[in-house]
Amino acid sequence: MTPTLEFQDTIAVLNLGTDENRFSPDWLDTVDGLLDAALTQAQALVTVASGKFYSNGLDLDWLMTHADRADWYVARVQALLSRLLTFGLPTVAAINGHAFGAGAMLAVAHDYRVMRSDRGYLCFPEVDINIPFTPGMASLIQSKVAPQTAVTAMTTGHRYGAEAAVAAGLADRAATEHEVLSAAVDLARPLVGKDSGTLGAIKATMFSATAAALAA
Question: What UniProt keywords are attached to this protein's entry (predicted)?
């Protein structure tokens, strides 16, 4: 299933898909278009997926067959991460399953995260698959968690379950499979009503160094 957008009152719910939800160019284009719609039609954004995965991040199969476009592709992924980081609506990731690599970075780029408690890991496996972080991706993670958490998450490839993610500051709440989306919507509901231009400007200032690194 390709990404879809639904609305719960004034809250947009962006479903990333039903499979590993890797960042293919088509997937990135679809998500960008749905974010455009959310920004004009909603007052908060929740992202979620269906099934075993939230997102497994980079589409490595596409990269292997389009090595000559690697720089373009990485820039495209980082543009999405930067957009979520500075989005003009309150954002909550409902992490329904595994979030690995750039998929975990996508979750971290949100304002808040609710993680499924009974299944799924949040993990940055780059150290184990020999893919160094770009400066922008490293800055994104480091901008959202305490320094020692960043060291552990980025240099060991540790897999965080929900309770450990909450304790480490990588997630804000844990919820069961059937409650993870509703918990994220409940978290977003009191945050609606902010002016999107003002909110986006505040986030752009807060995360200016990370946004600049992601754009480099």
Answer: Lipid metabolism
